[in-house]
Amino acid sequence: VDTDQAEVPAKSKTPIKTRGITTAVPVDAAQSECAAWCEDFASCPLPVLAESNIRSDTMPDSQPLPMINRLLNGLPRRSRNAVLQSTECIDLLMGDILCERGERCDNVYFPLSGLLSLVWLITGHAALETRLIGNEGMFGSTLALGVQRAPQRVVVQGSGTALRMSTEQFLQNLREHAELSRIVNRYMYVVSEQLAQTAACNRFHEVESRLARRLLMSHDHARFDHFRLTHQNLAEMLGVLRSAVSIAASTLQQRGLIHYSRGEITVLDRAGLEESACECYARGIADYNNLHLSV
């Protein structure tokens, strides 16, 4: 993977949220953080492998991690720069719905930080999360199959930033850049593996190990060791009763792995949390490693 910095053109001003404060700053300033890939991290194919290695008790909680998109970072420098010219950096605000199932996809999203959640709705039941998208991937990859309708509802599950590209520009980039088409196709294959893995996980693994896996996935994409998830959020994500999440979270907290208070979760012992998670977590990392190392 080429580690040269991407060249992002200056654009007009747009609101950028920073630590809860909305300010108007030039997009080129925001994109210098969002899209200028950091050489120290560019060689790592998955955010968990880079970010978790530098987290430590001695690192100030206020020190943010670099923001990149691993999928775009897998492109050769020239193709990456060309693709970035048709993107804009936007805020992802928790709870926002980017697209409803069956709606036409007007844009695709490449998260830089934060999380997108794909949820399935069944009449008479709470929404069920089927997949998470962080800076290892994108939303809108099915456009490469000629399908312009969203397969599921897409909700921002963790605030952050993303690169947004119009559907027309994305399809044009697929036609003009074979490397982008190739990596998007490989990404869709990994997604299909992940969906099958999640189905098996939901059927065979205990709530506690599934909860540990879900917290690790949120931690991988959070910029700090703490993030917000209520018991109700987690129950809907895991497809279980809220009481089951309460019991599992209490067990993890008693073991000193996390601290939970009023929807705020702090990871205290990541290594212990990894030991508590089911095998699906490590397998997911391996899937994304194979995606990037084989391109």
Which sequence of SSEs, written as H and E, runs from N to C? EEHHHHHEEEEEEEHHHEHHEEHH
Gyration radius, in Å: 18 Å
Distinct helical segment count: 12
**Percent helix:** 40-55%
Structural class: alpha+beta
What is the CA-CA span between the terminal residues? 9 Å
**Low-pLDDT runs:** 1-65
Strand order of the largest sheet: 4-8-6-7
Count of extended strands? 12
β content, as a range? 15-25%
Q: How would you sum up the global shape?
A: globular
Averaged pLDDT: 79
Largest sheet: 4 strands, antiparallel
Describe this entry's structure for a reader.
The structure is a single chain. The protein has 295 residues and is of the alpha+beta class. The chain is built from 12 helices and 12 strands. The strands form 4 sheets. A 4-stranded antiparallel β-sheet has the order 4-8-6-7. Strands 3-9-5 form a 3-stranded antiparallel β-sheet. Strands 10-12-11 form a 3-stranded antiparallel β-sheet. A hairpin with a 2-residue loop joins strand 1 (13-18) and strand 2 (21-26). Helix 8 (207-221) crosses helix 11 (270-276) and helix 9 packs across helix 10 (242-254).
Structure summary:
The chain is an alpha+beta fold and 295 residues long. It has twelve helices and twelve strands. The longest helix is centred in the middle third of the chain and has 27 residues.
List strands and helices in order, with pairings.
Layout: E1 13-18, E2 21-26, H1 27-34, H2 39-42, H3 47-54, H4 70-73, H5 77-84, E3 88-92, E4 97-99, E5 107-111, E6 115-120, E7 128-133, E8 153-158, E9 160-166, H6 167-176, H7 178-204, H8 207-221, E10 226-228, H9 231-238, H10 242-254, E11 258-261, E12 264-267, H11 270-276, H12 279-293
Helix pairs in contact: 6-7, 7-12, 8-10, 8-11, 9-10
